[in-house]
Design goal:
Elements (H helix, E strand, L loop, with lengths): L11 H4 L9 H17 L4 H10 L6 H24 L9
């Protein structure tokens, strides 16, 4: 199959996989992280979140979920710190 520089890639089939269940538990938690984070911020306890994840088919134990959430929080903190540390361009005004 030849590609020319004028053709655009069709990402439709690739995007269709976004909502599929990932293979690993860690990836499943990463996929659910935005919702998990909102539930925890709303005051729900991790024990309840763990039970709800199991109800929807993400079978994971409390200890492993707690570990993964710690990793996600650390990743978020590192990304936030990297954004703050990124060089800023200052524009001189006359």
């Amino acid at each position: 199959m030849e590609e020319t520089s004028n053709e655009q890639l069709d990402y439709t089939r690739l995007r269709a996989h976004l909502l599929e269940k990932p293979r690993t538990k860690a990836a499943q938690v990463r996929q659910a992280w935005p919702e998990i984070k909102e539930l925890l911020a709303a005051g729900h306890c991790l024990k309840d979140v763990c039970a709800w994840l199991n109800e929807i088919g993400l079978e994971i134990g409390y200890a492993r979920l707690s570990h993964y959430i710690g990793q996600m929080r650390e990743r978020d903190a590192n990304q936030a710190a990297a954004k703050e540390a990124s060089p800023r361009i200052l524009v001189a005004r006359d």
